[in-house]
Design brief:
Strand content: 15-25%
Number of domains: 2
Number of strands: 11
Radius of gyration: 19 Å
Helix content: 25-40%
CATH class of the largest domain: Alpha Beta
CATH architecture of the largest domain: 3-Layer(aba) Sandwich
Structural class: alpha/beta
Distance between the termini: 34 Å
Shape: globular
Largest sheet: 7 strands, parallel
Length: 258
């Protein structure tokens, strides 16, 4: 069976969005590949634990510019039968041209259409994207729309489960790391609204200031609940109880779409 090689970066400094999207893809495609292997620059301990718990192989790449990585590191890591998936804003046309001959297939997850593509498949889970927005070879297949969003099994199964959301409960989840530290400010705005009875704040294991957040949460007993490092099943269940949510725009938003 071929090997699925997933290239993305994610840590507490830049966030985990690209990485979590590929983690969902790995879960979906696990049965179709003999091995699934992540390639990541400078993964922190939280990322390493996340992949290890998922049973996925990881190779840590040395810090390098995209062009240097593609020319110097990738030839030694890729095999001719690999399916290579890229998810990140640095993997531009020049990068793709260098790595495309090294693998059997090249897939790009993208939400910017900011440069041409040399891939066999481009996947953009956003809605309202016209095919003309993408410069790509005639042989490149384009898949767009929320129906193609990679969702983990717990979020897929949640669609068929009964939900009883409360209009007065709001969920705040700004990704696994929230590198800009916007979680508290967002929750404070919601707490100032009389119509909001309870705010659920969710942060991931890569969130860098959990102690300060717990101390602040203690000053709002009864109106604020803090959740950290929830499993996919736990987060899906929490989402079903909330009537509204403030989410990071990429992965979390698609996870709540009906």
């Amino acid at each position: 069976m071929p090997r699925l090689v997933l290239r993305a970066d994610g840590n507490s400094r830049i966030g985990l969005g690209h990485l979590m999207r590929l983690l969902a893809l790995a879960e979906i495609l696990r049965a179709d590949f003999g091995e699934i292997h992540f390639l990541i620059q400078a993964p922190d301990e939280n990322v390493q634990v996340l992949l290890r718990n998922a049973g996925l192989a990881l190779t840590e790449l040395p810090p390098a510019a995209p062009a240097t990585e593609a020319a110097e590191s990738m030839p030694a890591l890729l095999q001719p039968t690999d399916v290579l998936v890229l998810d990140g804003y640095g993997f531009d046309y020049a990068y793709q041209q260098l790595v495309r001959p090294l693998a059997a297939r090249l897939v790009c997850l993208d939400d910017l259409h900011a440069f041409p593509f040399a891939a066999d498949l481009v996947l953009n889970p956003a809605g309202g994207v016209a095919p003309s927005a993408y410069l790509r070879p005639p042989t490149c297949r384009l898949l767009t729309g929320p129906g193609y969003a990679p969702l983990r099994a717990d979020f897929q199964s949640a669609e068929s489960q009964a939900a009883s959301p409360s209009a007065t409960q709001v969920l705040v989840c700004l990704g696994g790391a929230d590198p800009r530290q916007l979680t508290r400010a967002t929750a404070e705005v919601l707490l100032a609204l009389p119509a909001v009875a309870l705010v659920h704040v969710v942060v991931g294991s890569a969130y860098t200031a959990p102690d300060e957040l717990y101390q602040w949460a203690a000053t709002h007993p009864g109106r604020l609940r803090l959740h950290r490092a929830l499993s996919a099943a736990e987060l899906a269940a929490l989402m079903r109880t909330c009537g509204a949510a403030v989410l990071s725009p990429a992965l979390s938003a698609t996870s709540t779409a009906p």
